[in-house]
Specification:
The protein is 48% helix and 16% strand. The chain is of the alpha+beta class and 447 residues long. The strands form 4 sheets. Strands 3, 4, 5, 6, 9, 12 and 13 form a 7-stranded mixed sheet that branches. The longest helix has 39 residues. It starts with a helix and ends in a 9-residue tail after the last helix.
């Protein structure tokens, strides 16, 4: 039997199929569920998981307020379940700075136009790394080097709902940025008994010229961090050391500041946890040990993002299961009806020499035409919604860009949905194959 004949019969039978509209609608919903809803779910879940993998999202701050963090305490913390390591803070960890000057002319023009540029400087800690997408890492760079985000914007965002005019971080590689602390830096130099001499000490703000050696990819889950640059632990220590010297604080062991500087057990430490989900467990364990520990990790995330991830994940699973089951039920019912109502037609086809395989092909082609029509409609709707959504979020502020769907992911999901609308009718036809085989040529005369 020629393919054109199979297609002709399938097309004619599809028009009288009572379940045609219902199957088309369900097939379209199935495609939308798999491509659109699942794509959003995968996109947001990936962003949340990337956030959870960040070093800072797994780091807890501990302070020597209640007891010195001596070797015995450090060893106890290291032996705590889920703790990967613990590192003392030898320099600054995170401080706000203003950019007073830069050797990049475009950046300088913006500073002159908008006023001061404000940045957050983060130092790497212990074995913390920050990979780059261009240039060099801090590991292979000298002191007073820095890496900047790929999308860099150190100015005040005028419209929180609009995408800022980012500076390309890669264009700053090889240039210098002169920075100065916005406020005098504060430290708390704990002495031997765990108290402080006079509360927080103010250290003078000093200007530093940092050379940009690389640029890193900035994940949208890191809310507001398009103004963050990273420096090495050596650079962070130099900044603190110079501030103490300029402030006239002696590093002699006889002074409180000197004791604090020379005894790491009197410094803030950072505990690295193996997994973000275990933050609470480690916090409880350290609290039970009478160790002063922050109750949250360094890097926060918006609740709305986590909620969106959970909602999309639940919705995609629920809709996919529901539409697949509904499709199977409707196609099985459609196939059964076709075999019952067209028993005489099938018997006639067998009487004139059509084999079961040819009739099976006709019935399958009929169902496939219907599901494919629904697939096409669902595909068009999903593509339009995804394109409009991507365009909308691409022009929004930084955090909203995490909702941009990757077209590669969309294509894979579309291929999966096509496979489902192709296989489901086939499975339904195979279920009804036994009934098809029972129809005989004599049944052509029974109706």
């Amino acid at each position: 039997m020629k393919l054109t004949n199979v297609n002709f019969l399938a097309k004619a039978n599809a028009k009288i199929n009572k379940n045609e509209k219902g199957i088309k609608i369900v097939s379209a919903l199935l495609v939308i569920s798999i491509t659109l809803i699942s794509a959003f779910s995968i996109t947001v879940t990936k962003a949340v998981n990337k956030y959870k993998e960040d070093y800072r999202a797994r780091t807890l701050e501990v302070d020597p307020w209640l007891r010195k963090l001596d070797d015995n305490v450090i060893e106890s913390i290291k032996n705590t379940e889920h703790v990967v390591d613990i590192f003392p803070l030898e320099g600054i960890r995170n401080d706000s700075f203003s950019v007073t000057q830069t050797s990049n002319q475009e950046f300088q023009n913006r500073i002159d136009d908008k006023g001061d540029a404000h940045i957050d400087i983060w130092s790497l800690l212990g074995d913390e790394k920050r990979s780059v997408i261009a240039g060099k890492t801090l590991d292979e760079s000298p002191v007073l080097s820095c890496v900047v985000p790929s999308d860099f914007y150190p100015f005040e965002v005028e419209n929180e709902n609009k995408k800022p005019d980012y500076i390309d971080g890669e264009s700053l590689i090889g240039k210098t940025i002169t920075v100065k602390a916005i406020n005098n830096m504060l430290i708390q130099p704990y002495n031997i008994d765990g108290s402080s001499e006079s509360g927080s000490l103010e250290l003078p703000a000093i200007e530093y010229k940092l050379k940009v050696v690389g640029t890193y990819y900035l994940s949208p889950t890191e809310t507001g961090y398009y103004d963050s640059i990273y420096i090495s632990e050596e650079t962070a220590t130099k900044i603190l050391d110079d501030a103490l010297t300029k402030g006239g604080y002696s590093k002699d062991n006889e002074t409180t500041v000197g004791k604090w500087w020379n005894d790491l057990s009197l410094r803030t430490h950072y505990v690295v946890v193996d997994d973000f989900e275990n933050i609470e467990s480690v916090y409880n364990a350290l609290t039970d040990m009478n160790v002063c520990c922050a109750d949250d990790s360094e890097l926060g995330i918006q609740d709305s993002i986590v909620n969106a991830s959970n909602i999309f994940s639940f919705a995609s699973v629920f809709l996919i299961i529901s539409t697949v089951l509904l499709s199977v039920i409707m196609i099985i019912q459609s196939t059964a009806n076709a075999l019952s109502l067209r028993k005489s037609d099938i018997g006639l086809l067998k009487a004139i020499g059509y084999k079961n395989s040819r009739i099976f092909a006709c019935l399958y082609c009929e169902q496939f035409r219907v599901t494919f029509t629904g697939f096409a409609v669902g595909t068009i709707i999903s593509i339009i919604v995804t394109a409009v959504s991507n365009l909308f979020f691409a022009n929004r502020n930084f955090i909203d860009r995490l909702y941009i769907i990757n077209w590669g992911t969309f294509g894979i999901l579309l291929a999966i949905s096509f496979l489902i609308v192709t296989v489901v009718p086939l499975i339904c036809q195979l279920i009804a194959l036994r009934k098809l085989n029972k129809i005989q040529p004599k049944d052509a005369m029974n109706e």
